[in-house]
Write a structure and sequence with these properties.
membrane (chains A, B, C, D, E), MRS2-like (chains A, B, C, D, E), 6-stranded antiparallel sheet, 10 helices, ion transport (chains A, B, C, D, E), rod-shaped, 66% helix, alpha+beta, homopentamer, magnesium (chains A, B, C, D, E)
């Protein structure tokens, strides 16, 4: 345990019971059951802010169980000078309370500052419309940060609630002005024209509003995460639709090729077709296969175009089909196929 | 720093400490820790609205640190005349407060006006059912605007809260009526039949309601964004389903062609099938390949149609199949295939 | 401008300033800055309900700027008789206030009645499980209605808030009972056993509850839209899954056919395979191609069936394939294929 | 209309005006404008609970317009005995009020009991992970139930609000204790040690808490629906991903077969390749086609496996490719293809 | 039933009516209608916490209907010593109340501890980016836990509300201090410097805050579930997009192969093409088929790459196409095909 008098730092160890006797507190008051609490008891202010447990009396501030919590640095370097400075003409407990609340708000702010750029960066890279699939490691980071953010939100809320509970009851604020009750002489001296209770209210209100600002920022950040998730979904869906259309166009092409390739397969059969000897038929059939595939594909593509933009009154660009005589029966066939196709969709 | 007396503008520079002494304020009161605050101290009203910091006394209005913030134009052109005009018979601090609050509401309104058409335009074009994939640059704009909107919502909320805090406590309203306390003569003169505190309450309430309207508009806009996102998702999904059905129909066609193409491949093998010399067999098999593919495809398409609309009792349009004699065994085959196919799905 | 005395209608034009002087109001009171307001000033009730601006005095009701707003019909046909009727024994201002509030609630109700069937119809047709893709024009209608609905919700909320603000402060209710203050004789006469302020409170409360019911209905409608959107998404996703399974089954078929078609292609090569002269080999290979395809397809389908229902411990029903020598096996094969097809779906 | 005296049931018809005169109520009081209301007027309690309209006096309970609403059964069988029983030593109006509120809560509870198992069943079957596509009829049922649930939530909320409004104002509770005001003798007799107003408060509070429990259950149910919808979506998406992977694997197979089938097609051309006479070449090329397809497929599958599980450091199982000399140029080709493939992904 | 005096445990059975007479309670007070209630009646505190029903008097604590509820163990082992210990100098009812509330909070905490690791584990494994499809059994567990969590949230809320109702009314707190009213001697003795009501308030507040912490944890957990669901969806969508791109790339390959395979099919026809005798043509056409396929595929892949990353200004890596003379017409054809392809997308 440690003991801080107005500027001087003393460290010593004491049993809880001795401490209780010294300050005439009950053992129960030092149990620190809640993670965040701020109560006035018997001319002491007992504070717990997560890992920081402190007792403020009009003359000194005791910090309990401070080891191994990363607080030493702050205690030694920042707290002592802050307590020693006499910028306010206000008594000691105001300075102590301000230092502790400031430390709490700074901690919360630091946690938000930790989380915020990480979230913004991750979202920035996830929302990037160029990427096809979300980077999973980024998603993991986002999930971690989102969890930290909701823990931070809870802590800010708990901190705000504990301040609000005090602000709502004027008697508690009065009780917090220790000097007023213990040291009337100092009180009268220091309170020339200053109402201690009002000053205390202002001090607490100040930190309440700082916490509120933190809460607002956290809520905005959460809103941004939600919006970004929607945008990520729309992005992924859009990519998928584009790929699906490409896929569909290629499937159309493959279908056309397969359809007309069937002609080639037919002529490839070891069956007599009576055209075997005519040298021109080879080029005719080959040309027909390629041209027919291309044409059917074009029809299907334009059909797809019309289908996906149904509201534009579009003249279907009917290809001028002029065929040689000896293939008309096949044409009729394919035409009926596509007709039935379009009729049954 | 700048100094505005009832209509006349004076600019000069002063240290903060001098200012404090002059107005007998404490240094702490001029720290402007919160982005939006409105407090009465020692017959001064100290206001901060984001970048605008001002001190109102019964005789003059001082604007602090106004340079480089885009406020000069407003200060010179609008503020001076507004303060000089004597439309109300109310004292100076009312006019000053009204001018500053009006400026704040105007700023918020301007931000909403900035964001609103951009959001509406972006949504309009994103919701367009004709487009297959969402334009990513539009999504980016939407995300930016959505972020601006939530910042605006926070600012409106903070502004409303700071006004509400004053409206809830009658003493603060009383304190804001500076003339009442400093200049009883002017007070009595001006307050013929007018209760200053009530007028102040009306003034603040007026701006509170304007902020509330802004908040309502922003919330509606957010609701519209959410609804539009749902519609965008339904649109994209619908497109995908349509494309998938087309794809499925083509896959069915390809399957049919491949199935019957196998016959052609079989006859194309360099193996003796004893049909090689019959010239009619070529046409028979070719015709069977094309007809069979078409038929199977048609059956599959009608099957798909029934499958996707299961509740409509539809007579399956059985195709009139009239075949040549020597292929009946194959026909039976395919018929049983498709029958069992349709029965088992 | 228009002037309504107890039943008689008079229309005339007046400047705002004259009106102010006549009623000894301040110019500011007639600015009607907020879309919905209800205030008592100097024995007048000044009301604005969106487009309707009115001033109620104990003797008459003046409606301002009524032209071109679609209000004429209501003013002439409904308002005059309503004001003239003496069903209550209550003074004039009660009747006037009731008429205006009733008109407001009717307007809101009419807007809800406008929007509600349209939304229900659109949802009904969008939720229809038979449709494969959402009708985009319906989605557009839904979006429009959803926007109208949220505007309506805001208006109901604003109306409720302005009534609630009055109901919360008894002095304002007292002020609204104009006759009590201006005409003590009429007051005493009319108030035999009736407390004016209480009647006023009942009247306002009545409309507050009507507005609350409207708000409840609107919220239910919004909930219905959200639920329906979820159902639409599930529907579209289900359709997609069904189509994807069909697609996968056909892809399996195509794969099998391609795999065994490769045998045919191999034998189609202009390479000597030493089987060229054996007539039975043609039928053997052809049969093997079709049988093999069918079998592989069957295996794949049953694999798919097992894969999609992983929790059912299923013995893979290995088909006992025993074949005849010639062509009957093709029939059996395809038949068994389709059987297995039906069993595994 | 009907008339119930302490246990005896009398039915008769009366005009509204007669009823008003009899009970010295105003016509307005019997308009029953709101779906749920509970007011005390002139020593009567006027109650409307949806379809049930009743007037309670210290001596009797009148139920109005009870025909055709499914209430007869309850009125005759349950209400009369309940009113007649003297378990409480409390006056009649307590019993009447308790009977009516109990009936209301029972109705709400019955509606919840109706909806709850249906929702749970539907969700149970929709969440079933084995099903591939959501059953649309189930979705329809879910939508209907969800609508009923939100109506029920609104009714519970309205009921709670109307009770809460009474509980918040002690005067209304006093007014509801009719006997206290009308029958001081009975009052004094019955109130030995019992405070009527307190009893009334307890009675109302009791039903308020029952309504609250109903509201909690309804909210839990809504939460369950939301969670289940998420699970349904994840299920459908998972199924789709599994099918898509299968599809992709088969597409890989088809691609491999097509690639190496091209070799067969090439050798099938009626062009001289100088290999025509070598009998071993047939087996070499055929074997190469099948082996090559299989190998490429394997490579693609392992590539897919690596691609989908990128974080596992996996040694790519390089197939031992040992090729014959005269095909190396094709190998190089396919190798470069797959290289470029993997590089461009 | 059971009877616990200050440390000693007595079990006996009693009728409810006898109990009522003994404690001079009304039968109604022992109905325990609500799942959670805490009321003071006639110098008894009647408590129900779900399955635990207890009556506290200044001298003893009776637990009712305790059998078969899993409470025996707690009653015998923990409750008796807790009641017997005299750590507080506070009267018996404080110890009894503290024991029961502590038991309730412990039960809630135990339920949260049950649910929390299960949810975290399930989410951990579901969010894992490596898995392609969500494990459905895990989803089922998640759904169950989510249901337990919302039931827990409701219970915590009900518990908090019942404590808050007492904390809000000072008279109820006074009533809860039984000793103050029944045993003034003990009261005076024990209350040296201690205000009983204040102690009671502190005691209740302590448990209220513990319940609040539980509620906060549950809410964080729910938020985590929601966030994780979003991440799961993005993961599944990403996987799908990756697979779809692979599929598209393979479809492109298949298309290219089919396109150029058509040349092979054409040459495979039993038609005279005049090239039959030239041995070089075989290699030329075969090479052209493979090279052409590869090239077209490469073009399509680079087209896809450009399409999916539209914002990068990329020089399309035009492949140096140098063809032999006699195939240019086919090239033109395919080029026009791909041109039209790119133009119509």
């Amino acid at each position: 345990m440690k003991f801080d008098q107005e500027g001087n730092v003393t460290t010593f160890e004491k049993k809880k019971t001795e401490l209780c006797q010294e300050l005439s507190l009950q053992a129960r008051d030092l149990r620190f059951q809640h993670s965040t609490s701020l109560t006035a008891r018997n001319n002491c202010i007992i504070i717990r802010m997560e890992s920081l447990k402190a007792i403020v009396t009009p003359e000194h501030l005791s910090v309990l169980d401070f080891r191994g919590l990363g607080l030493e640095r702050w205690l030694v370097l920042d707290l002592a000078p802050q307590l020693a400075s006499h910028t306010h003409s206000l008594p000691f407990e105001f300075r102590a309370l301000e230092a502790i609340l400031q430390h709490k708000v700074n901690t919360l702010q630091a946690r938000l500052n930790d989380v915020e750029p990480s979230i913004l960066d991750t979202l920035e890279s996830l929302v990037d419309p160029k990427i096809l699939s979300a980077d999973r490691s980024k998603l993991h980071i986002l999930l971690q940060n989102s969890k930290s953010l909701s823990e931070l939100e809870t802590d800010v809320k708990v901190f705000k609630d504990s301040l609000l509970k005090i602000l709502d009851e004027d008697e508690i604020i009065e009780e917090l002005c220790l000097t007023k009750w213990t040291d009337p002489r100092v009180f009268e001296e220091s309170s020339l024209g200053i109402d201690h209770a009002e000053e205390m209210e202002l001090l607490l209100e100040n930190y309440y509003m700082q916490a509120e600002e933190l809460g607002n920022k956290a809520r905005e950040l959460r809103g941004l995460i939600d919006d970004s998730e929607s945008v990520i979904f729309i992005n992924l869906d859009s990519h998928r639709n584009v790929m699906m259309r490409l896929n569909l166009q290629l499937t159309m092409g493959s279908f056309s090729l397969t359809l007309f390739g069937l002609i080639g397969v037919a002529f490839g059969m070891n069956l007599t077709s009576s055209f075997e000897e005519d040298p021109r038929v080879f080029w005719l059939v080959t040309g027909f296969m390629f041209l027919g595939s291309g044409m059917i594909w074009r029809r299907l593509l334009s059909f797809l175009g019309r289908h996906l933009e149904p509201s534009i009154p579009s003249l279907p660009s009917l290809p001028n089909i002029t065929f040689l005589n000896d293939k008309t029966h096949v044409i009729c066939n394919t035409r009926s196929v596509t007709n039935c196709h379009s009729s049954c969709l």
